């Protein structure tokens, strides 16, 4: 540009000034833009750093460029720099299956993104295997579309994955269990729905899995009309008392087949005044028919046609309860024929049986509808007479008169074929008064009285007097003595050994015994009910636990016994007792006890009214090492529900199932399924109350590896137990030895 004069110079200056102003303005704009972008970038980075999910940026060949704190923590590192320096080959170092990396890259380059890519990976630093869900996008050059890098998020889903895996396992197991599983929900408005019905449930009903109606009311039409009322009442009663359902009923399936069903269900309270029952139903038609046949046979003596001993015991128990309820007396007459053996030996069994039939016929004529006569065993008969009055002396006089009447029956001879034979009875009488002990005690008293007659020549009767019953346990005495039993050091623990499959003792279950100064050794079932009624059970439980702790302390101090474990019976109320919990959470750890050697056994029947705090209380103790065992497992869906909801470590098989494994295919299948469930849930299985070698063999063959019962050893003193534990194993292999009956 040529400047020709002052005017041009002025214009030039003005242009330069404008240019300067524009440059300054542009610089200011750019600076503000830069600051805004910088702030925005800083905010984005802050957001990424505070994400709960892992975030990363990676080169196309898999080398990580950046990682947020969540991803650093997921891989077990302390800083981003440590993570980036440690990861070299993602395919080999991160994915459990290296081929997952190739699948990931193929999807990324084909689609430009990957969503919900689930893989099993290693937590990089610790090599722990975990499950993740990954999302990623491919970042490309905006000018030419060439891929530059990729970035994405990682979320750990190990808990969700394992829960889903466990649920799938349980559903598969449910389909293989005998019977079917169901859930019935009572809504707040009183209506019922069925959230879950297993395929095996539908099969039991004779319905296809595609059957559309899932309303419980649609299944009521299949229930026998005579059983429908009781069926509905079970749910109503369970809802009111929140108690477990255990009910049998008849069913006409959709295909017309008539069956017997056994239903168990456990209620669970839900928010909004709703109740859901977790239940199990099983076809027991075969067992029911066999039971009815056995009942017919067992209720009637084949020789005399009289009621059998079993029926008499049930009736006697009912009479005892009636005497308590109505404050009145009854009497039991124990009768033995004096010279029956001589007649039977001389004239043969047919003649002997005929004599028993004739005696039975005469005795039957003496009883009224409310009384009873039964053949007890051999040539022994038992008669029960009720309603003998409220006054003891009046009742004794009435019993004496009845005994005299019985004696009169034998004054005449009995025609046996062409001959006439005489026989006489020896009769022992036991009065049944309010507050008397059980049926066995009454039978013992009558039996002893009868033998006193025998000793004096027979052909008479003796009434067991009150002063002759001093050896019988008095309920009032036990109630009075129980509070002082611990103070007087009258309790002791006995231990029943538990064995593994090699015949080695691994531990024991402890049981209390009361060494009563008058009544001798009393079992828990003889004093714990009164202890519970008197509020003393907690004190006894604490004593048991403290003594158990003392044994464990001694064992842990000796290398040859420090592996032994002890199991203690417990209950939800037991765990809620602050004093009991203090022994476990404070005293035992302070004493240096390894609490993994202590197992608390919770009976399945005691869990149907569990509080919401039970799982919390159990988990608190498990954190200290305490193990929990579900005792009596095998009662159906309620047990399975408790296994899923509560943190158990082992299960103890239901003794009823064990006892019938030799006779019933259903019991064997049930036990086998239970053992499979324990394996799926990674729980130990122990079988208790094993009485025969065949039971042990059946259980061992099906995978059970721990055993307890009288076949191996009864409960013994600590000294005897330790001697057994230190001895060599019973045999090399439980299955073979059990089969041979050696253990």
Describe what you observe in this structure:
It contains 26 helices and 26 strands. By secondary structure, it is an alpha+beta fold. The chain has four domains: 49-156, PAS domain (Beta-Lactamase, 2-Layer Sandwich), CATH 3.30.450; 163-289, Beta-Lactamase (2-Layer Sandwich), CATH 3.30.450; 300-468, Alpha-Beta Plaits (2-Layer Sandwich); 475-740, Alpha-Beta Barrel (TIM Barrel), CATH 3.20.20.450. It has an eight-stranded mixed β-barrel with strand order 18-19-21-22-23-24-25-26, surrounded by five helices. Strands 2-1-5-4-3 form a five-stranded antiparallel sheet, with helices on both faces. Strands 7-6-10-9-8 form a five-stranded antiparallel sheet, sandwiched between helices. β14 (414-416) and β15 form a beta hairpin. α24 (693-701) packs antiparallel against α26. It is elongated, with a radius of gyration of 40 Å. The relative contact order is 0.05.
Total number of helical segments? 26
What's the CATH architecture name of the largest domain?
Alpha-Beta Barrel
Helix/sheet category: alpha+beta
Quote the beta fraction: 15-25%
Tally of individual domains: 4
Report the radius of gyration as a whole number of Å: 40 Å
> What is the terminal separation in angstroms?
120 Å
Under CATH, the homologous superfamily of the largest domain reads EAL domain
Average pLDDT value?
A: 83
User: What level of helicity do the residues show?
Assistant: 40-55%
Weakly predicted, low-confidence segments: 732-743
């Amino acid at each position: 540009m040529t400047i020709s004069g002052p005017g041009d110079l002025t214009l030039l200056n003005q242009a330069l000034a404008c240019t300067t102003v524009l440059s300054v303005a542009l610089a200011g704009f750019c600076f503000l833009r830069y600051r805004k972008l910088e702030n925005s970038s800083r905010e984005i980075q802050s957001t990424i750093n505070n994400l709960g999910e892992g975030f990363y940026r990676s080169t196309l060949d898999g080398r990580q460029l950046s990682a947020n704190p969540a991803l650093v923590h997921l891989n077990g590192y302390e800083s981003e720099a440590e993570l980036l320096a440690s990861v070299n080959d993602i395919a080999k170092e991160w994915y459990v299956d290296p081929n997952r990396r190739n699948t990931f890259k193929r999807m990324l380059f084909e689609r430009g993104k990957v969503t919900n890519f689930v893989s099993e990976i290693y937590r990089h630093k610790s090599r722990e295997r975990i499950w993740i869900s990954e999302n990623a996008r491919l970042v490309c050059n905006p000018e030419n579309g060439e891929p530059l890098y990729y970035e994405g998020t990682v979320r750990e889903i190990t808990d969700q994955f394992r829960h889903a895996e466990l649920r799938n396992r349980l559903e598969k197991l449910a389909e293989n269990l005998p019977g079917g599983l169901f859930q019935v929900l009572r809504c707040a408005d009183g209506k019922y729905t069925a959230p879950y019905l297993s395929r095996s449930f539908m099969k039991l009903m004779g319905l296809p899995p595609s059957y559309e109606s899932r309303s419980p009311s649609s299944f009521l039409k299949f229930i026998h009309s005579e059983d429908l009322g009781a069926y509905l009442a079970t749910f109503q009663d369970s809802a009111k008392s929140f108690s477990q359902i255990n009910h049998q009923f008849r069913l006409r399936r959709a295909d017309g087949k008539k069956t017997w069903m056994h239903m168990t269900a456990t209620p669970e309270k839900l928010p909004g005044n709703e109740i859901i029952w977790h239940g199990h139903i099983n076809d027991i038609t075969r067992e029911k028919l066999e039971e009815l046949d056995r009942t017919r046979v067992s209720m009637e003596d084949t020789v005399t046609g009289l009621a059998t001993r079993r029926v008499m015991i049930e009736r006697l128990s009912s009479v005892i309860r009636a005497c308590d309820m109505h404050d009145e007396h009854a009497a039991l007459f124990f009768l033995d024929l004096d010279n029956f053996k001589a007649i039977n030996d001389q004239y043969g069994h047919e003649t002997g049986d005929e004599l028993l039939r004739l005696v039975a016929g005469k005795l039957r004529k003496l009883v009224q509808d409310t009384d009873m006569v039964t053949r007890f065993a051999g040539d022994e008969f038992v008669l029960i007479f009720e309603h003998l009055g409220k006054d003891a002396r009046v009742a004794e006089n009435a019993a004496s008169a009845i005994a005299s009447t019985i004696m009169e029956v034998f004054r005449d001879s009995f025609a046996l074929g062409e001959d006439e034979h005489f026989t006489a009875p020896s009769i022992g009488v036991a009065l049944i008064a309010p507050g008397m002990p059980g049926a066995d005690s009454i039978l013992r008293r009558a039996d002893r009285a009868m033998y006193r007659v025998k000793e004096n020549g027979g052909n008479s009767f003796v009434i067991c007097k009150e002063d002759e019953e001093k050896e019988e346990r008095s309920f009032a005495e036990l109630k009075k003595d129980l509070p002082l039993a611990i103070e007087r050091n009258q309790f002791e623990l006995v231990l029943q050994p538990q064995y593994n499959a090699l015949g080695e003792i691994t531990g024991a279950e402890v049981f209390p015994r009361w060494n009563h100064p008058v009544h001798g050794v009393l079992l828990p079932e003889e004093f714990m009910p009164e202890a519970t009624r008197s509020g003393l059970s907690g004190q006894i439980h604490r004593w048991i636990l403290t003594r158990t702790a003392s044994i464990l302390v001694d064992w842990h101090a000796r290398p040859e016994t420090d592996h032994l474990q002890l199991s203690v019976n417990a209950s939800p109320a037991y765990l809620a007792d602050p004093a009991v919990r203090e022994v476990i959470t404070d005293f035992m750890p302070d004493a240096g006890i390894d609490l993994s050697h202590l197992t608390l056994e919770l009976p399945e029947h005691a869990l149907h009214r569990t509080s919401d705090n039970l799982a919390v209380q159990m988990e608190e103790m498990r954190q200290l090492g305490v193990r929990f065992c579900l005792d009596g497992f095998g009662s159906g869906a309620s047990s399975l529900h408790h296994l899923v909801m509560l943190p158990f470590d082992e299960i103890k098989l239901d003794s009823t199932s064990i006892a019938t494994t030799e006779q019933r295919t259903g019991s064997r299948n049930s036990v086998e399924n239970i053992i499979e469930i324990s394996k799926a849930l990674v729980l130990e299985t122990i079988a208790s109350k094993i009485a025969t070698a065949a039971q042990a063999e059946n259980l061992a063959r099906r995978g059970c590896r721990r055993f307890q019962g009288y076949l191996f050893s009864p409960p013994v003193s600590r000294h005897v137990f330790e001697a057994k534990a230190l001895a060599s194993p019973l045999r090399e292999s439980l299955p073979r030895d059990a089969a041979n009956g050696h253990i």
